[in-house]
Every structure is written in C-alpha cells, then in structure tokens.
Amino acid sequence: MAKEEKVSHESEQCETTPADAPVAESAEQLPPARRKSSVRYPNAYVWFIFLAALDIMLTYLILHPVLFARDATMTESRGAEANALANWFIERWDVPGMVIFKFVLVVLVVVLCELIGRRKDETGRRIAEWAVAITSIPVLVALVQMGLDLYFWFYPAH
C-alpha cells in the first residue's frame, strides 16, 4: 500500500485553462511557453496549402483527357499548363513532378513568411495573404474551365 501512495498524479500538476479564458487569435497573443511551436499565420497557411493541393488536383484533371473522354478516340488534353517552369516539371516527371514542384514552392513561401514575419509581422502577414490570393487565381480559372467543359458536354453545339 505504501508504494501506491507514493505514485504521483501528473494530471494534478498540469495547469488547466478555465472555460471562460479568452481565446488567442494569433500566435503573438499566446503566452511565451506556448508560442515556441506555433507558426505566425496559421489561417493563411491552411488556406494556402488547401488551394495549392486543389490546384494540383484540378491541373491533373484538365491535363489528363481520359478522365473526361466522351469516347476512346479523345486523346487531346483539354488545356495546357500556363506556368513554363511548372510545365517543365510536368513534362519530365508528370504528376510526381507537379506535386514536388508545387509543395517545394509552398514550403519556400511559408518559410519566407515566417522569417520575414519575425522582423516585420505585418509584412509577413501580407505576403502570406497575397500567397493565398495568388494561389486562388489558377484554381478559379480551372473551375471556370471545367464548368464550361461540363456545360458543353451536356449541351454540345450541333
């Protein structure tokens, strides 16, 4: 019995947050102990990564005609990659090259935002927001292109 009494309960030593405690909206508002593992602009990064992944998926759908072929004779692509550097990766390594290229860019942008944000928080935040805005452009263009494809699929011009 004496041995069981000496067992310490770590859960009793942990600090708990009261239910009515204010919620931090950014990493800067967190206490220093919790700030070390946080990124500076998590909301922007989530949208940036989501849009980058969506860009990869939509590019794949547009560049691979077999997925939307009306018949077995349709072998032409329904579009082309507008970014010359990205196109170079796609031509040489197909989907794996496209994925690697996109996520190297994502990592580069996030690292730059973090480094710049350490010195000038507002500049880092603006770069992260612009990254989201710029990445949304090809996604919107692809969605419009695919919407038009579907429209002409169902209502072909005779």
What is this entry, summarized?
The chain is an all-alpha fold. It is built from six helices and no strands.
Order of helices and strands: HHHHHH
Distance between the termini: 89 Å
Outline the biggest β-sheet: none
Q: List the total number of helices.
A: 6
Strand content: under 5%
Instruction: Give the count of structural domains.
Output: 1
**Oligomer category:** single chain
Overall helicity: 55-70%
Defining key terms:
6 helices; mainly alpha; 158 residues; elongated
Write a structural description.
The structure is a single chain. The protein is mostly helical and 158 residues long. The chain has one domain. Helices cover 66% and strands 0% of the residues. The protein contains six helices and no strands. It has helices spanning 2-5, 10-13, 32-35, 42-63, 84-119, 121-154.
List the helices and strands and how they pair.
Layout (H helix, E strand, L loop, with lengths): L1 H4 L4 H4 L18 H4 L6 H22 L20 H36 L1 H34 L4
Helix pairs in contact: 4-5, 4-6, 5-6
